Amino acid sequence: MAGLLDQALALHARGELSEAEPLYRQLAASDPDNAVLFINWGHALGGLRQFAPALAAYDRALALEPGLILLHLIRGDVLQWLLRYGEALQSYDRFLGYVPDHAEAWNSRGLALQNLGRLVEALQSYSRAEALAPGLAAPHLYRGFCHLLMQDFARGLPLYEWRKRMPQPMEVRQYPQPLWTGAEDIRGRILFSYVEQGFGDTIQYYRYVSFALAHGAKVILSVPDPLVALLKNATPAVELSGRDKMPAHFDFHIPLASIPLAMGMRADTIPASKSYLSAEPGRAAHWTARLGSHGLRIGIAWRGKEQIRGLEGKSFPVAALARIADLPNVRLISLQKGDGIDQLAHLPAGMKVETYDFDEGPDAFRDTAAMMSACDLVISADSAPAHLAGALGVPCWIALKQVPDWRWFLDRNDSPWYPSVRLFRQQAMGDWDSVFDAMRRELISRKV
Predict the structure, then answer these.
(1) Neighbours of 338 (CB within 10 A)
(2) Rounded Cα gap, residues 355 and 341, in angstroms
(3) 187: alpha, beta or left, given left = phi > 0 and alpha = psi -120 to 50?
(4) DSSP reduced 3-state for 242
(5) What CATH number should be reported for the domain holding residue 258?
(6) pTM score
(7) Which of 28, 32, 53, 389 could potentially form a cystine with 378 if both were Cys, beta carbons 3.0 to 4.6 Å apart?
(8) 386-430 residue pLDDT tens
(9) In which domain, by residue range, is 397 found?
(10) Predicted local distance difference test score (pLDDT) of residue 1
């Protein structure tokens, strides 16, 4: 078996986890008392996002070797991915009982507390992590998210800048031109702004260019290449470029997500309008004709990206919409791309979801925007399609986990970002039934 173990370890070291994992499984069956083997197997399973069997592997290793203290920290992280935040908190506390000055553990503990809705305690845990490791970016950033969730922008926005110091940021740019902080006069100057984050963030944050334009600047905005065509229809209009293109000349620069800090934005001064995007007329006409006018047309998107810890659990299974699909006159129209499409092959008996080929070219969301404009309603997870619907001014219901991403705040069913959006929140962690029951009742009350 030594040769098989060497092969598994070599595959693992090269990142070939799908090939290493079955070898670990085979080895574990023949050597069930090898704690180190189970740890490696757990690492491979976790890398493959198979968190339940990863937890079982770590628990087996701990049962064999109770002195493996670090596994309490690791299993806490796995439990968070499984949305078992109470158990994760216990695991972190167990680890901290042995290693009380571990900053990363205090940060992870804060995230578990935040997801349990215990925000004051979460802030205290983040602060403890900051005190232990002042240069560690994550506790500052997550404390910022917690303040923003509480609509405390004065504290949250400065801490949000710590995103630039994360070990693997999406993008950090350095230029010889000065950073605009909001204090400098930019009237008549060229301001180069750029997006560091994902599609949904780009669509949501586009509104911030209005701050700079109001100060008299000419704005050149760099966005992910697939969004350039979509944002050409945005208002107010600015000069757009792809991600890797830099203007020949500019006077100041600023990340788009840093403009709110520069302008001292607060929750009650979020720039909002009924819509600031529009579908291309030709595409809108095409999709209006293709979808037809019969029935209540509901566009649906059920899965978003959950690659970053803290964003787990925001997607819902498409089957959860069965209670809406069974209403008379309702048509569910898939707006989902990529991950999650496979769920359409396993719908509950009698549930129908219409599917179309769309956004097949290099530009993202151009067809999606047109399809949304032809729908009566969009129901979405917390993902980029929700932001697109809100920016278009299309009526959109967003299904949210119990403690959501900071931008949706707490205890409200509307959104200052998007007047056309309504929020439906879980009553308990993982409880999507209550969310879609509430949506169903709302549709019935409207006599669809």
Answers:
(1) 7
(2) 10
(3) beta
(4) coil
(5) 3.40.50
(6) 0.94
(7) 389
(8) 999 999 999 999 999 999 999 999 999 999 999 999 999 999 999
(9) 281-445
(10) 63
